[in-house]
Design brief:
four-stranded mixed sheet; elongated; binds uridine-diphosphate-2(N-acetylglucosaminyl) butyric acid
Length: about 425
């Protein structure tokens, strides 16, 4: 299994190109299931999760080609079952449920089960499909949904759910009548998907607010579309500079999607300036400790919580980091402790007392964003950090070690 070896203490400088957003590319590729013919998607990141969704779509009989620009044709679907083997490696596989029932009248998708960051049920996806008239049964670990044609419904999500909103928005495009999604997720990835669906002929309004209205149509047509830049990758590089000091330019990111983070990082003493085609991010002084509470968009992203905690570990005071989106997203704490951090977890909050420097150590990645936080900690630490189980990072960051090396970091991937 590969490892990442990091020698800390290098300041970052230069330019880095931000890749397309994993969490936008995944639902958008699933939306190809709603139509017949070749769909073309540009700016798709090269990631393990993208390879997994390609495998899943081809297991239904869809034709797929390309990398970076990916073409998907779901004209001849032969299977409607997403097997446990694929779903267990990527929970986002649940995103095929809505489109398959809407297009084929039936879908069988393995229940994802829990993961390192919490139980993560899909009850809200299931209830919404039932509200739309689907017959849903749980059999042998699979969700089986059937509906001759889904009908529009007024759906209230108890919690703001990103993939839940996406799944049901896709299903509603081909339903009979009008669907209203209330307490819908407002993430930019939901908006990217809605725009793609609209280009396919869907009638959607309100995406980006918490009430989305979809008037069902009989058919959608193929589309050519682009994936938005990855705000979490961009945020991870911004926090990296906060930790190491230096001055970098993020090319191709969308600063409107990063407003809360930009404000937090400015409060923490960083300089962030919009420049042509991106953002310049710099830190020269010390890091001021700031408090952070994760919330659905436009609040502070839970997918940046672990990275922010690594930065607060070397802040000049006390920071309280509260996780409200997932129940168990503090797996990185015990690894940061191994690097000398002073962090105490109390319920949903972590109290982080900043120290002057972390020390390199062998650490283990437990999930995607935890791996990112440990890489950042390693970049800022004194000495060598050896990060194992890096398959997690490959799920969501395209060539992270190459991008960081080009910015002057001492990081390399080795085969253990
Ligand atoms: N929830 C339920 N029932 C449901 C659905 C969600 O109780 O039916 C709960 C979850 O357990 C969680 C909360 O609602 O406590 C919010 O979960 P959400 O459904 O919004 O998460 P998700 O759609 O499964 C997406 C991203 C995650 C990101 C979250 C929150 C994708 C493919 N995944 O997950 O990304 O953390 O939204 O923003 O879009 C990552 O990229 O590392 C990642 C985990």
């Amino acid at each position: 299994m590969d490892k990442m070896i990091i020698q800390g203490g290098r300041r970052l400088s230069g330019e880095v190109q931000i890749s397309g957003a994993k969490n936008a590319a995944l639902p958008i590729m699933c939306s190809a299931l709603l139509t017949e013919g070749w769909n073309t998607y540009h700016n798709v990141p090269d990631l393990v999760d993208i390879r997994t969704i390609k495998k899943l779509l081809s297991s239904f009989g869809a034709a797929i080609e390309g990398e970076g620009t990916i073409r998907v044709n779901a004209a001849n679907l032969t299977h409607c079952e997403a097997s446990y083997d694929l779903v267990k490696t990527m929970r986002a596989s649940i995103l095929v449920l809505g489109p398959l029932v809407a297009r084929m009248g039936v879908a069988r998708v393995s229940l994802p089960g829990g993961c390192a960051i919490g139980a993560r049920p899909v009850n809200l996806h299931i209830k919404a499909l039932q509200d739309m008239g689907a017959d849903v049964e749980l059999k042998a670990g699979y969700v089986e949904a059937r509906a001759k044609r889904l009908r529009g419904a007024d759906i209230f999500f108890d919690l703001s759910t990103v993939t839940g909103t996406e799944n049901i928005m896709m299903a509603a495009c081909l339903a009979e009548g009008t669907t209203v999604l209330r307490n819908a997720a407002r993430e930019p990835e939901v908006v990217n998907l809605a725009e793609v669906l609209k280009s396919m002929g869907a009638m959607i309004s309100g995406a980006g607010t918490d009430v989305i209205t979809i008037n069902g149509v009989d058919r959608l047509h193929p589309v050519e579309a682009s994936i938005i830049p990855d705000r979490i990758e961009a945020g991870t590089f911004m926090i990296a500079v906060g930790m190491t000091g230096g001055d970098i330019t993020l090319k191709g990111c969308n600063s409107l999607h990063l407003e809360v983070l930009i404000n937090k990082l400015r409060d923490a003493g960083m300089e962030i300036t919009p420049v042509a085609g991106g953002l310049r991010v710099a830190r020269s002084g010390s890091i001021r400790s700031v408090d952070v509470k994760t919330l659905p968009y436009p609040g502070f992203a839970t997918d940046l919580q672990a990275q922010m905690m690594a930065m607060m570990a070397v802040g000049d005071g006390l920071s309280v980091i509260t996780e409200t989106v997932f129940e168990n997203r503090f797996m990185h704490v015990s690894e940061l402790l191994r690097m000398g951090a002073d962090i105490v977890v109390q319920g949903h909050s972590a109290i982080v007392k900043g120290i002057p420097t972390l020390r390199g150590a062998p650490v283990m990645a437990t999930d995607l964003r935890a791996s990112a936080s440990l890489i950042l900690a390693g970049l800022a630490a004194e000495g060598k950090t050896e990060l194992s189980r890096i398959y997690h990072i490959d799920r969501g960051y395209q060539s992270i070690e190459k991008k960081l090396s080009a910015l002057g970091a001492d990081i390399k991937r080795v085969q253990a």
